[in-house]
Design goal:
By secondary structure, this protein is of the alpha+beta class. The chain is 48% helix and 19% strand. Helix 4 runs antiparallel to helix 6. The N and C termini lie far apart (58 Å).
Length: 295
């Protein structure tokens, strides 16, 4: 026979033990950040439930308000991205026309300046689009559309699209891909954006004439897209700051860091992660790893 006298108010007990005391109620001790159940007088328990109820309603209202704000931010960024695209496209088209030397011959210095205009216009569009996708992911307004995708083909197509930019920087961008397709269930456009971000980040931190290599690895537990450069590399401190917004990996970089923040979010949305292998003056390898069970 249990001695009910050993059970005191505010003791943490099993739920049934609370019934051993007349006028008592056992509430989840999680209300106080503890495991188990806590014994309280009926009146106190009722007051606790009322307080918790009010707090839950207040938190629900705050979450709803934050959700509305996130959706409004995504809508605003969508409008801003659209408004930016047209003038940037016109600037880029004009610079590319001048580079053909149809309107007249250019000096090497003029050609270099115009290539910078083209490259930075494309980079500005990419930043605007990255901000838009980031806002939609944060707002829960982006629904992944997964399809079975050949990652080798995706990487090959991405490199083909980036090759003109690499050539303007006198850089070499190549692929090392398996002989057989490596398929995974992914949102192909979103994953392509992540690969573009990793590759363009490597290009920005690689000197003119440098080499960027994209590989796809396939093993029993995961599939991995690797982007390796022979650039300036990063210290441990720089690597720790790498995925913070508005922080670039080095003083040599000219980015906001938002592209890598988005890339990590894309990886996490697919159940994966981003790994970094780097050291100063020895280049960097970024690895986008997707778990095999998702493939």
């Amino acid at each position: 026979m249990h001695d009910v006298a050993v059970i005191a108010w505010s003791d943490v007990v099993a739920p049934a033990a609370g019934a051993l005391l007349t006028g008592a109620a056992a509430l989840p001790a999680a209300l106080l950040g503890a495991p188990g159940w806590i014994v309280l007088p009926m009146g106190v328990a009722g007051a606790c439930v009322a307080v918790v109820g009010r707090r839950v309603r207040a938190l629900t209202a705050e979450v709803a308000k934050a959700d509305r704000a996130a959706h409004e931010r995504a809508d605003q960024l969508a409008a801003a991205s659209h408004d930016l695209r047209s003038p940037l496209a016109m600037v880029s088209a004009a610079a590319e026309l001048l580079l053909t030397e149809g309107p007249g011959p250019l000096t090497p210095t003029q050609q270099r300046f115009l290539r910078t205009v083209v490259d930075q216009s494309a980079h500005a569009v990419q930043i605007a689009d990255d901000n838009l996708v980031q806002a939609r992911l944060e707002a829960g307004a982006y629904e992944l559309r997964r399809t079975m995708t050949d990652l080798s083909a995706l990487v090959r197509e991405t490199v083909t699209g980036l090759r003109p930019l690499a050539q303007r920087r006198d850089q070499h961008i190549i692929t090392q891909l398996p002989a057989v397709p490596v398929r995974a269930l992914v949102d192909a456009p979103l994953l392509r954006r992540a690969v573009v971000n990793l590759a363009t980040n490597a290009m920005r931190f690689t000197t003119y004439g440098g080499l960027i290599v994209l590989r796809v690895l396939d093993n029993e537990t995961s599939v991995v897209i690797c982007v390796t450069d022979d650039g300036i590399g990063m210290s441990r401190e720089e690597r720790e700051r790498l995925f913070r917004p508005f922080v670039s990996g080095s003083t040599l970089g000219d980015g906001t860091g938002l592209g890598l923040v988005l890339t990590r979010r894309i990886a996490e949305a697919h159940g994966g992660r981003i790994l970094v292998d780097t050291s100063p003056r020895r280049g960097t390898t970024m690895m986008l790893r997707l778990p095999r069970e998702r493939a």
